[in-house]
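Input (structure):
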């Protein structure tokens, strides 16, 4: 069966501020992306996901939008955007945009207007009077703050589930959904091919009653995957998405397999795929700020649950909110290259659409900052201060930030060994990792045995093997050191075996070596440290 294009292509996520600066102001921009299209084409990228490029005061780096119909001047102009879409299309690269519609910026004219209780925009947001001098309910935000702000002018509070500069929209007001539909059509008419939908499963707030007592996100039961959200998604699909050749991937926080099935069920016509979080939570206790030792088997089991839950999934190991995978699930010291290739193999051999985050393809690592002053992310600052209030000692607070801060993924792309890693001729908005002389594109691009060369090869292999593109997934082993699974299509069975340890490990699988991350063509019965292999099994399931 022919798969839709969005199941056959590789998606590459660009965080525009950190990708490539073209004018020396230290901020990555659209022209910079245009200049790097050939690089993405050579890598085998078929779709680019652009993190937000709309006008924004950048409290949350573009996830706080002040004008959905305009480009952030720091990133370029509408003409640049049109040119990017056109030049990408010439290379058969499609573009999807980030759709942030749970909230806007507090600088958006809707919100500015809505501060006036008599304005027709009042009802675009969620305004409520307080209760006995206290906020309207006991909810807490995603960014470690209270989630109500009192407005002197009107004597009421507004709701924000993220930063206080990101007020939540009110989806009980049908006008809001109409506005969203117009925004979608505007961009789709420009030639983009879909959207990554930010926190899309929490749009609709059922009630504003107090939340049950819990450690984090008090109130979540009133807005997580409520029927109203499903109705909104169906309406967007019916009235807008179905009129275009496009796809949607939902970023769905705290999603369960059952919720995921509902969101992606082709019969219900809501989303095409989602980002689930369970596999990214296997190295933490309750919240991401408290890390526990990484266990490959636990990661594999979480992945397996989601491979089985959905017919088609969005697969990722990194994005702009997560630490770097090689520092987290691999070994960014002695086995840096080996473990980055192993993670590449994992990402590109699962069933589903693979999403590569910028820099992942060269094994970029977590930042090497030494103090909070070097960190920009609003979430990191909020959490650091909350932890201080909770009397968590300074050294531990800094460790929390080091291991988990979203800025780990946001340091500038390392293009070459020249000043600022070739990212910018000016002072970059966020520090470049000092390892850029060793870890950069120029150093890897002509070497087939580099991490980048290996990504290229895996992407080519995936395109040429139907079993990798569309075969069924079956978990075989989820051990402390070795993870293995099969992909099967008709009579072909591929076995993927991954050694997540620093020692040789025995494996029981035999077959023709299609690709080994070490470059070996025969493996005997042992995998080398952090080696990954793809075997064609001679005897059924190995
Ligand atoms: O950072 C997180 C996961 O490690 C989450 O708490 C994150 O805030 C959540 O996944 C929602 O993320 C999305 O919406 C936010 C924005 O800050 C993130 O960058 C975006 O990916 C608000 O728009
Ligand atoms: Ca710039």
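Output (sequence):
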């Amino acid at each position: 069966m022919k798969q839709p294009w969005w199941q056959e292509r590789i998606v590459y996520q660009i965080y525009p501020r950190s990708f490539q600066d073209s004018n020396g102001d230290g901020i990555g921009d659209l022209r910079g992306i245009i200049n790097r299209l050939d690089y993405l084409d050579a890598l085998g990228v078929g779709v680019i996901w652009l993190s937000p490029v709309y006008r924004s005061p950048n409290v949350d780096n573009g996830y706080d939008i002040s004008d959905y119909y305009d480009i952030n001047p720091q990133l370029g102009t509408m003409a640049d955007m049109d040119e990017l879409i056109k030049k990408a299309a010439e290379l058969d690269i499609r573009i999807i945009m980030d759709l942030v519609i749970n909230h806007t910026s507090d600088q958006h004219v809707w919100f500015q207007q809505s501060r006036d209780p008599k304005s027709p925009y009042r009802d675009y947001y969620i305004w409520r009077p307080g209760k006995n001098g206290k906020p309207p309910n006991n909810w807490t935000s995603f960014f470690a703050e209270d989630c109500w702000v009192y407005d002197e002018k009107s004597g009421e509070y507004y709701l924000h589930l993220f930063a206080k500069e990101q007020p939540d929209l009110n989806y009980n007001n049908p006008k809001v959904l109409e506005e969203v539909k117009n925004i979608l059509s505007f961009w789709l008419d420009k030639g983009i091919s879909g959207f990554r939908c930010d926190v899309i499963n929490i749009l609709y707030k059922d009630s504003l009653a107090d939340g049950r007592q819990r450690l984090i996100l008090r109130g979540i039961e009133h807005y997580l995957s409520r029927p109203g959200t499903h109705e909104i998604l169906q309406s967007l699909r019916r009235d807008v998405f179905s009129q275009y050749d496009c796809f949607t991937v939902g970023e769905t926080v705290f999603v369960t397999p059952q919720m995921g099935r509902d969101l992606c069920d082709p019969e219900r016509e809501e989303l095409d795929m989602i980002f689930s979080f369970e596999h990214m939570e296997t190295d933490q206790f309750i919240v991401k700020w408290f890390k526990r030792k990484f266990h490959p088997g636990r990661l594999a089991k979480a992945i397996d649950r989601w491979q089985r839950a959905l017919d088609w999934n969005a697969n990722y190991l990194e994005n702009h909110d997560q630490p770097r995978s090689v520092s987290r699930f691999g070994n960014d010291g002695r086995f840096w290259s080996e473990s980055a290739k192993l993670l590449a193999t994992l990402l590109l051999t699962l069933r589903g659409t693979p999403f590569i985050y910028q820099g992942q393809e060269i094994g970029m690592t977590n930042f090497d900052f030494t103090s909070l002053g070097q960190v920009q992310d609003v979430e990191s600052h909020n959490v650091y201060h909350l932890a201080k209030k909770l009397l968590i000692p300074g050294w531990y607070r800094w460790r929390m930030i080091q291991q988990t801060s979203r800025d780990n993924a946001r340091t500038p792309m390392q293009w070459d060994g020249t000043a600022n890693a070739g990212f910018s001729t000016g002072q970059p908005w966020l520090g470049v990792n000092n390892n850029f002389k060793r870890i950069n594109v120029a150093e890897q691009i002509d070497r087939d045995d580099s991490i980048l060369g290996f990504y290229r090869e895996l992407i080519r292999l995936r395109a040429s093997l139907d079993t990798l593109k569309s075969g069924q997934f079956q978990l075989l082993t989820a051990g402390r050191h070795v993870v293995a699974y099969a992909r099967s299509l008709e009579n072909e069975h591929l076995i993927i075996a991954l050694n997540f340890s620093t020692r040789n490990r025995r494996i029981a699988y035999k077959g023709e070596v299609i690709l080994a991350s070490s470059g070996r063509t025969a493996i005997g019965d042992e995998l080398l440290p952090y080696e990954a292999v793809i075997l064609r099994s001679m005897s059924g399931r190995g």
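Notes: Residues 244 and 254 are 29 Å apart (CA to CA). The chain is about 30% helix and 20% strand.
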